[in-house]
Amino acid sequence: MANYMLDTSSTVLCTHAGQAQAAGSNPRVKMGGQPIVTQTNSYTVSGCSLPPPNAGNGPCVSAQWTSAATRVKAGGTAVLTKDSQAVCAPTGTGLNILNTQMRVKAT
Known about the structure:
By secondary structure, the protein is mainly beta. The model has no long low-confidence stretch (mean pLDDT about 95). The chain is built from no helices and twelve strands.
């Protein structure tokens, strides 16, 4: 099943509503003028509402992708799609992809 690909303008949040932004991108491949994001690109998280240690195990600071497209790659690395999964550090929770560009799909 094909899903829309992520680019640097995609809206991604940690499960505690912190804003996640790509720390890097693939500068050679663009969609609608925005660079795409691949599985090796980490994300930084800001504004996570999970309390720090002693009250919780947060806040989320960064995230690394654990799954991505299986058939589409850019620069030899799998591209991220709407159903890609990530794990935040130090909490171990995931990221929620709220919106992506709506023209290019990948599997």
